[in-house]
């Protein structure tokens, strides 16, 4: 395993928290909106329900991120004024300008902490963890919040035409507080970040008609909704997801047995199952919560971490691998000794 005694500082995860909207949509609810069935959705995805933010009544991505950050700070027993930096991983930014993270930072009372939005679709939280670690090693940041928040239900069509995406996505926010520590054993052990922009249109939300790919110009030309090549993304994920886990284990010089938790993006139960089988992982090492939340994009990985915390399963000294894959296409990992 790489020797980290020479790292500048140890970095510890001192707080974990999550926030979901009030309104929940079950598969039965969706049956009333489109041609689908609870049986089809559960069999193909493992999803039973998901949460949907009520934008009209102010439940925006900013509101969800605020709820998550406040709960994460409370879990860390940290005052917001102690934060130096707030990174908000999202593809549901409220406006192009200002960065949603700036309003978030002001709303929780984090003063003039640095703040920026971070866009890497479903890999947002994982890539942001790697970025935060690097900034904390090289910059003056002692306490950093990394929040993943998304409201993709705003970008899908709740009708039969949009059903493949409408059943998949849910809204949520979750994250962590990272803190510098004297203990240099804590922090990032290995990481991977990859992309394939030639496959940009496997998952995309066109703003104008000029963004549409050639085949979508022929009729599937709705703007500001998610266009998804479901089967293509599925095949990509089943292949890439176990591969990048293997690559990271090798870089760290450890085996899957040495990792306590694989905290993975929840996009489809069958994709997670493929990774479990590839590494012979017991259920307790790869926690699944897609049945309760659906695919919550950048919130999905920290939502799993929050489940583990609530269940009392996160302990000091454990190794935790965060794993993401999604739009871009992007895929990657962040392996921590916590
Ligand atoms: O974070 C990354 C985000 N995206 C993903 O991870 C997506 C990955 N892909 C998937 O999870 C799966 O491809 C889906 C769940 C989206 C679709 O499952 P599938 O087993 O790949 O189905 P399919 O697209 O091959 O469609 C099979 C059939 C089609 O009908 P025909 O053409 O065989 O008659 C679809 O029209 O299932 C139909 N179908 C549905 N039926 C009932 C598609 N969506 C639905 C639905 N309810 N919601």
CATH superfamily of the largest domain, please? Thiolase/Chalcone synthase
Please estimate the helix content: 25-40%
* CATH architectural type of the largest domain: 3-Layer(aba) Sandwich
> Could you report the average pLDDT, rounded to the nearest whole number?
96
Tell me what portion of residues adopts beta-strand conformation. 15-25%
- Which regions have little confidence, pLDDT < 50, spanning 5+ residues? none
- Please state the overall shape, judged from the principal axes of the Cα atoms: globular
Overview of the structural elements:
The protein has 338 residues and is of the alpha/beta class. The protein has two domains: 4-181, Thiolase/Chalcone synthase (Peroxisomal Thiolase, Chain A, domain 1, 3-Layer(aba) Sandwich), CATH 3.40.47; 187-296 and 306-337, Peroxisomal Thiolase, Chain A, domain 1, CATH 3.40.47.10. The protein is built from ten helices and 13 strands. The strands form four sheets. The chain has a five-stranded mixed β-sheet with strand order 1-7-6-4-5, sandwiched between helices. Strands 8-13-12-11 form a four-stranded mixed β-sheet, sandwiched between helices. α7 runs parallel beside α8 (269-279). The two termini are 15 Å apart. The model has no long low-confidence stretch (mean pLDDT 96). Bound molecules: oxa(dethia)-CoA. Oxa(dethia)-CoA binds at residues 36, 40, 44-45, 122, 163-164, 167-168, 203, 228, 230-231, 233-234, 237, 267-268, 295, 326. Oxa(dethia)-CoA is lined by residues 36, 40, 44-45, 122, 163-164, 167-168, 203, 228, 230-231, 233-234, 237, 267-268, 295, 326.
């Amino acid at each position: 395993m790489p020797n980290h005694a020479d790292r500048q500082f140890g970095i510890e995860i001192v707080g974990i928290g999550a926030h979901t909207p009030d309104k929940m949509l079950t598969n039965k609810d969706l049956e009333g909106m489109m041609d689908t069935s609870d049986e089809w959705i559960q069999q193909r995805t493992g999803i039973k329900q998901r949460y949907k933010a009520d934008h009209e009544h102010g439940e925006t991505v900013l509101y969800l991120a605020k709820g998550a950050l406040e709960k994460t700070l409370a879990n860390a027993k940290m005052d917001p004024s102690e934060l130096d930096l707030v990174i908000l991983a999202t593809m549901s930014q409220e406006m192009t300008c200002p960065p949603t993270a700036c309003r978030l930072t002001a709303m929780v009372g984090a003063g003039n902490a640095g703040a920026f939005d971070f866009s890497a679709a479903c890999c947002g939280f994982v890539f942001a963890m790697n970025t935060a670690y690097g900034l904390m090693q090289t910059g003056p940041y002692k306490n950093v919040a990394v929040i993943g928040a998304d409201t993709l239900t705003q970008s899908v069509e709740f009708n039969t035409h949009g059903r493949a995406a409408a059943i998949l996505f849910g809204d949520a926010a979750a994250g962590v507080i990272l803190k510098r520590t004297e203990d240099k054993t804590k922090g990032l052990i290995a990481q991977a970040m990859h992309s394939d922009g030639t496959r940009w249109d496997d998952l995309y939300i066109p703003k104008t008609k000029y963004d549409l790919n050639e085949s979508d110009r022929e009729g599937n030309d709705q703007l500001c909704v998610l266009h998804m090549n479901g089967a293509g993304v599925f095949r990509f994920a089943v292949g890439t997801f176990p591969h990048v886990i293997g690559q990271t284990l090798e870089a760290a010089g450890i085996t899957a047995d040495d990792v306590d938790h694989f905290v993975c993006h929840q996009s489809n139960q069958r994709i997670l199952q493929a990774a479990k089988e590839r590494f012979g992982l017991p259920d307790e090492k790869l926690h699944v919560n897609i049945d309760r939340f659906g695919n919550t994009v950048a919130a999905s990985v920290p939502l799993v971490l929050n489940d583990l915390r609530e269940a009392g399963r996160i302990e000091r000294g454990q190794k935790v691998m965060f794993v993401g894959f999604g739009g871009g296409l992007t895929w990657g990992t962040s392996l921590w000794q916590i």
